[in-house]
Amino acid sequence: MSNCPAEIGMTLDQIQTPALIVDLAAMEENIAILAKRVAENKAGVRLMPHAKTHKCVEIAQLQIAAGAKGVCCQNVAEAEAMVAGGIKRVLLSNEIVGADKSERLARLARSASIAVCVDHESQVDMLSAAATSQSSTLDVLVEIDVGAGRCGVPPGERAVALAKYVASKSGLRFAGLQAYHGPAQHFRKPEERTAAITKAAQLTRDTVALFKAAGLACEVIAGAGTGSFENELASGVYNELQCGSYVFMDVDYGRNQTDKPFANALFILTTVISAAAPGRAVCDAGLKASSVDSGLPAVHGRPAVVYAKISDEHGTLEISGEGRVTVGDRLKLIPGHCDPTVNLHDWLIACRDGKVEAVWKVARGW
């Protein structure tokens, strides 16, 4: 495997750094916990975990083996990788624009169940043309803005009109609603998340009622994430949950006030390459190894060592008290934000009991 930092059987000390490692025991427990929680619900809510977190076919397969009904993706390349890896149900929980991307997605629908979101008629036209040319059928969800202020038409009549337009087009099947509140995942206090999802759920409930009055069956009502899924479960509105980060977790999710038992399972393995000054050291994991959109990474299990500053190829560490760091030491960093950190790497090194058990390719592209 070209430029792969590890081989099966290696110890952590043998892995070339910086490298992205997965604690298999922690990840498997995270997958089992959410699968059990979803299975316990009495309303038939399904789990469609978001593959944009891990971008890895093998992890998607583990999620499906635990009970997930398929996966969500955020771009066409991710969807292509999942279908090539044997995943039979994929929701592209995003809008796409362009004949090429639309045709790639429609081509996938010849061998798997593929759904995609829309919030404008021009997207619908491109998808219809692509599905017709590929002799396939795409399921389409109308996305509504339930508070994220990103994609999505306003809830209500505008969503109904767009759904009717979808239903009128060849090669497309109107399948339901996408109603995801992204920012709510990172509201720190439980009451803040509850308030946001209560409002989102009511907007969604009202829109579903309008669909029903218009004679449109709303088979899928999708949304939710790692920070808020308990609220969507409790709402009685959503029937598909799109949690993603729960498999890995990160520093930012660690700031949420929550009793959810998910553990950190993703780490950047890094080597100390300099310790030339008292109280300071430098590791080889910088901006090219860790996303900082949600803050700096944190040093795992070393409270006296703080990741204080970042540059392209370096991370500056501050050492206090009885902390001791020397050149050649290996450290594990918890990423500030797991999803974009994974996207910086080509490989996930899956480890158990300090040894490499598997090496998985990260599916990147657009």
In short:
The protein has about 375 residues and is α/β, with parallel strands linked by helices. It is built from 10 helices and 17 strands. Helix 3 (about 75-85) runs parallel beside helix 4 (about 100-110) and helix 4 (about 100-110) packs across helix 5.
Q: What can you see in these coordinates?
A:
- The protein is an alpha/beta fold.
- The protein folds into 2 domains: 12-21 and 261-361, Beta Barrel (Lyase, Ornithine Decarboxylase, Chain A, domain 1), CATH 2.40.37; 25-247, Alpha-Beta Barrel (TIM Barrel).
- The protein has 10 helices and 17 strands.
- Strands 1, 10, 11, 12, 13, 14, 15, 16 and 17 form a 9-stranded mixed sheet that branches. Strands 2-9-8-7-6-5-4-3 form an 8-stranded parallel sheet.
- β13 (305-310) and β14 form a beta hairpin.
- The relative contact order is 0.17.
